[in-house]
Hints:
9-stranded mixed β-sheet; single chain; about 35% helix; alpha/beta; 10 helices
Amino acid sequence: MSRLVVVGSSNTDMVIRVPHLPAPGETVLGGSFSTAGGGKGANQAVAAARADGDVSLVACVGKDDFGYAALAAFAVVGINTDHCMVDPQAPSGVAQILVDPSGENSIAVAPGANACLLPRHIDTAGRLLEKAAVVLLQLETPIETVLAAARRANQADAVVILNPAPAQLLPAELYPLLQMLTPNETEAALLTGIQVRDPGSAAAAADTLHQRGVGTVLITRGANGVYLSQSDDSREPLRSEHPGFPVTAVDTTAAGDVFNGCLAVALTEGLPLPQAIRFAQAAAALSVQQPGAQASAPTRAAIESFLITQATTDTQTP
C-alpha cells in the first residue's frame, strides 16, 4: 500500500504566454502555446513521485486522448493508478492558463470528469486510504468527495492535509477532520475574512482556523516564505516563520502543488515539520524556475543538491 494517497483532479493544461495578464474585457495577443498535464491533484501526485514518494492517485479522467495520455504519464513517473477511474461520458478536465513574463498566472478550469469523482469512488478506494500514512486533498473535485476522503482517512489515523485551492468556503464539518491546512494568503483571507499581510495577520487567520478544529496551519506567502502555527488546545499555538529561497521566477503555475506534494512526501518519511517545510520550499523554488506544471516538478536528486548548495551558501555568508 502507498504511504501517500492523493485524492484530486487531473487536467490537461493549455498554456499561453502573454505580455501581461488581461483585464476584464481585454484581449491580449499571446505568444507561445503549449499543452501539458495539470490539475492540482495530478500535479501534487507527480511532484511527490518525482521526489521519490510512494504515491497513489485517486482521480477521474475522461474516455478521450487527454485522459489516456494523463494515465500513461502517471505510470511513467511511478504513480499507482489502480484507483484512477475513466468516465465513459464526461470529457477530461482542461485548464486555460495565461502566464506573464514575471511568471504570474491566471487560470480558468473546466472540470469535466473531475466532477464525476464521487464519494462511492472513495468507498471503492477505502482500503488504500486506510493504509496510507498521509492523505493529500484539494478542491477541484466535489466537496462531498473531499469530505468522504477526509472522513475515511481520519478514521484510520492518517495525516490528512487539505490544500484549500481553488479558494472556496468550506463546510464546518470538514475542519476537524484535517490535521493540516495549507492555504496561501488569498485562500486564508477567503476562509477567515482576515487579509494576511504580515505575521500578525497570519497569526490571527491561523487562530480562526484553529478554533474550527485544524491543529496545524501552514500559510504559504510566496516570496515571504511560510507561516506555521500549531495548536493542540492545551497551550498557546506554537508559531514560526520559514523564509523561502530567493530565486527568479519564470512560471509560478504549480509552485503550490509542488510544495504540497513534496511536503507530504517528507512527512511520510518521518521528517520533523520544519525540515519537511524546508524540503518542500526547495522543491517549489526549483519549480518556479522552469515552465509548466508537472514538467517543472524537480527530482529528488535536484532537491537535495539545491539544499546542499543553500546550506553551503548559508555557512559562508558572514
